[in-house]
Specification:
Number of strands: 2
Keywords: Ligase, Membrane, Transmembrane, Transmembrane helix
Radius of gyration: 24 Å
GO molecular function: ligase activity
Membrane topology: Multi-pass membrane protein
InterPro entries: O-antigen_ligase-rel_domated, WaaL-like
Number of helices: 19
Structural class: mainly alpha
Strand content: under 5%
Main location: membrane
Number of domains: 1
Order of helices and strands: HHHHHHHHEEHHHHHHHHHHH
């Protein structure tokens, strides 16, 4: 009886505390609204939601990974509507989720041994090279290093071991695929709205101030959905199209039709993006899948299909009245003026970097270069490619290391799929993820797709799950 009284008293105190806290928040917000301090008022109102998120993530690190995946997909699009560095939300959630893992150690045994593997090692080596860039004598701005290294190496280092220790079940992979599919469909829906209805006022403002030069072309608008730009949108949709298309081929039951719908919708999204480089994603992805399958009919059929599409775009004019097809066709023209400009820029970079084996420093090229070191050679010379940017910022040594790591992961995963895996479900999912990843790797020669949100986080999670599949098979024996 006394115990119940104590419990009720404790509950009453908690309820009163919550009511008082919320009353102070609402009262402060009303006061600030009355004083026309609207941004500050909204900031005050957000505080309870932020606290709820912190508590929810600290309760279970899996909740943090859910929010990381959501923020990774939508944060940059929301930034068009709400001012502020929303891209840093992924960083904050990664740190918070790692704190949750550490605190969880006190009540649950965290299996740190799961993160002790080759994938974590190469992520650590790559981040170590990024740290070395801080003492690169060519560095112009070390502030730029902080911003640039996040997408280049920090997310990889934080995300890969996080999956191994906190999101390492077969059900977790299924959840990720489901979220990814629904988010892909949302991206396609938003893209079709832009094409049919037109951009909304906030998107029009972005086009008028930032994106118009590259997105408002004589043939029409390059669709960008809620992504940072059309190039990222097109590459991401190609990634989804390849992955879910292969999942359709290796899934039984009604779910396979959901994968098929997602794949077809994603390819529509890729087409309306007007991103010529995105066509490399299905070409490379399906080409790798044909090899991984080790089935003669699929290999022959796959390459016939790829060459048929290539021939259609390269040697015919069928469909030229459709702007999207016409634009993709120009991507296969070696005399395309845009391609020639890229080659010219690469020649300039080749001469500039000849005596700089470690590059100009992380953040010295691209958007970060323009922001932190405007007027410098690397900042003013467009890279137009993930690999060219790695080369410009981290030199030939950095580019060689980066390519070695990527192809090591590709080779290791391919060997598992082709010669070790006996589980058809795991093999199908691994082929889907790896083929999509390889497509993005190929497309990144002409864009920054590999390091852009949402591709980067999805790729690091995919790498982790492929490595985990080998362990799952051992456990099931």
């Amino acid at each position: 009886m006394e115990e119940n009284k104590r419990r009720n008293n404790s509950l009453d105190i908690t309820q009163v505390t919550i009511i008082v806290f919320l009353s102070v928040i609402v009262g402060s917000a009303i006061f600030l609204f009355a004083k026309q301090q609207i941004p500050l008022a909204f900031l005050i109102l957000i505080i309870p939601f932020v606290l709820i998120v912190i508590i929810w993530v600290l309760y279970n690190p899996k909740n943090g990974i859910v929010l990381i995946f959501i923020a990774n997909y939508f944060a940059m699009g929301i930034a068009r509507y709400l001012p502020g560095p929303l891209g840093l939300s992924v960083d904050g959630l990664l740190v918070l989720t790692w704190l949750s893992v550490i605190f969880r150690q006190f009540n649950h045994k965290v299996k740190w041994i799961k993160a002790k593997n080759l994938l974590t090692l190469v992520a650590l080596i790559w981040y170590g090279y990024a740290l070395f860039q801080l003492i690169n004598p060519q560095v112009v701005s070390r502030a730029a290093w902080f911003y640039a290294m996040r997408g280049v190496s920090l997310y990889m280092l934080l995300m890969i071991p996080l999956v191994f220790v906190a999101f390492n079940k077969k059900e977790d992979l299924d959840k990720m695929l489901k979220w990814w599919a629904w988010f892909t469909l949302a991206g396609v829906a938003k893209g079709l709205m832009q094409q049919v209805i037109g951009p909304d006022p906030w998107e029009n403002h972005w086009l008028a101030t930032v994106g118009g030069k590259t997105h408002l072309l004589p043939g029409g608008l390059r669709i960008f959905s809620f992504f940072t730009d059309a190039a990222t949108y097109g590459g991401s949709m190609g990634f989804s199209g390849v992955t879910f298309g292969i999942l359709f081929l290796h899934t039984k039951g009604r779910k396979r039709y959901f994968w098929l719908i997602t794949s077809l919708a994603a390819f529509i999204g890729m087409l309306i993006s007007g991103t010529r480089g995105a066509i490399a994603v299905p070409f490379a992805g399906m080409g790798l899948y044909s090899i991984l399958s080790k089935k003669f009919k699929i290999v022959i059929g796959g390459f016939i299909f790829i060459f048929a599409i290539y021939g259609f775009l390269k040697f015919t004019t069928i469909g030229n009245s459709v702007y999207e097809i016409r634009r993709f066709r120009t991507g296969l023209d070696p005399n395309n003026p845009s391609l020639q400009v890229r080659f010219d820029n690469q020649q300039k970079l080749k001469h500039y970097l000849a005596d700089k084996p470690f590059g100009g420093g992380l953040g010295s090229a691209g958007n970060w270069g323009l922001r932190f070191s405007p007027g410098t050679f690397l900042a003013e010379t467009p890279t137009d490619s993930w690999y060219v940017q790695i080369w410009a910022e981290q030199g030939i040594i950095g580019l060689t290391l980066h390519l070695f790591i990527l192809f090591f992961i590709l080779a290791y995963s391919s060997y598992y799929i082709m010669f070790i895996s006996k589980n058809e479900d795991y093999k199908g999912k691994a082929m889907a993820l790896l083929s999509g990843m390889f497509g993005i790797m190929a497309a990144s020669y002409g864009s920054g797709a590999l390091g852009q949100m949402p591709n980067g986080i999805i790729i690091y999670m995919s790498m982790s799950f492929i490595f985990l599949m080998k362990e799952w098979e051992k456990e099931s024996i």
